[in-house]
Design brief:
336 residues, globular, six-stranded parallel sheet, seven-stranded mixed sheet, Quinone Oxidoreductase, Chain A, domain 1, single chain, alpha/beta, Rossmann fold, 11 helices, 28% strand
């Protein structure tokens, strides 16, 4: 099968950073399904894993943790899917990735592709959707069905992939969304997705939020990096909660959290698959739920840029775009 892989971890400008290779076609066993990959999207995790380091792979390594495609075959223990089903998923960071014609993935972390979306539109969603969904509904315990209607959420880094779907999930749950953006195009983007208010994260945010008439906010999601930690601590309400997806070496003073009895939660969407948690199937369930919301017209894809075909040249272009940190929405590469 065709695949885009690497043997050395290099700057994306290096033509050897990705290679077009031929690899054996995998065989499904156990609860695995074999997916014929139709489209993949690129996330910051891809660029971080691919980034320069002194490691050489003896056999080509395939990256990629966002895909849509068609079930080619199923393992003997599979009960959720049949050959020919259209699916979307983010996969497992400990296994071979989606930048290949065929990929093995555990059925419990796969969802039925939204019927109303193309493969490219669907591939833009899984990793960011799982991340935002788990951040809000599993970590912060927001009720997805509207029991917390009217509560406020500040989404820091709202114009990126996770923030773009996060805005929509929060609005669907009835929350008042305060989104951060710093450029005219990302400001317009987050408003288009439903943000009630927009503040500039390159300027002091405490003053901007309080100018909206809010002393504190109920929930905060940090969907970029932790340089805004002290701002988040200042703005979170007493007994409120902050969720973040970024590990950091920056200082994270906790005194302000303590006196507010506020809580901090980490979201890592690969945790369930990596540790084979008993509730792994919840990713299957949530992807199916979001697919239903999409097909009902309540949530839209966050796709922004499409490249074709899936090859080393276009993968380098996609990674370079994501590495700028200025992409709004998602970058997808489709079709072998």
């Amino acid at each position: 099968m065709k695949a885009v892989a690497l043997t050395h971890y290099l700057p994306i400008e290096n033509p050897e950073s990705f290679l077009d290779v031929e690899l054996p076609k995998p065989v499904a066993a156990g609860r695995d399904i074999l997916v014929a990959v139709k489209a993949v999207s690129i996330n910051p995790v891809d660029t971080k894993v691919r980034g320069p380091k002194d490691i050489v792979e003896e056999t080509p390594r395939v990256l990629g943790w966002d895909a849509s495609g068609i079930v080619e075959s199923v393992g003997p223990d599979v009960t959720l899917f049949n050959v020919g089903d259209e699916v979307y998923y983010a996969g497992d960071i400990t296994r071979s990735g989606s930048n290949a014609e065929f990929q093995l993935v555990d059925e419990r972390i796969v969802g039925a592709k939204p019927k109303s979306l193309s493969f490219a539109e669907a591939a833009a969603l899984p990793l960011t959707t799982i991340t935002a969904y788990e951040a809000f509904f599993d970590r912060l315990k927001i009720d997805r069905n509207g029991a917390d209607k009217g509560q406020t959420v500040l989404i820091i880094g709202a114009g990126g992939g996770v923030g773009s779907i996060g805005i929509q999930l929060a609005k669907a749950a009835g929350l008042v969304v305060i989104a951060t953006a710093s450029r005219p195009e990302t400001t317009a983007w987050v408003k288009e997705l439903g943000a009630d208010h927009v503040v500039n994260h390159r300027e002091p945010m405490v003053e901007q939020v309080r100018a909206l008439g809010l002393q504190h906010v109920d929930h905060i999601a940090i969907f970029n990096d932790m340089r805004h930690w002290e701002t988040a601590v200042e703005l979170i309400r007493p007994e409120g909660a902050i969720v973040t997806i970024d590990d950091t070496e920056q200082p994270m003073p906790m005194a302000g959290m303590k006196v507010k009895a506020a809580s901090l939660h980490w979201e890592f969407m690969f945790a369930r698959a990596m540790h084979q948690t008993p509730d792994m199937i919840e990713q299957h369930n949530l992807l199916n739920y979001v697919a239903g919301e999409i097909d009902a017209g309540r949530i839209r894809t966050t796709l922004d840029t499409v490249l074709s075909p899936i090859n080393a040249e276009n993968m380098r272009k996609a990674h370079a775009l994501v590495e700028t940190g200025k992409a709004k929405g998602k970058v997808v590469v489709e079709s072998f």
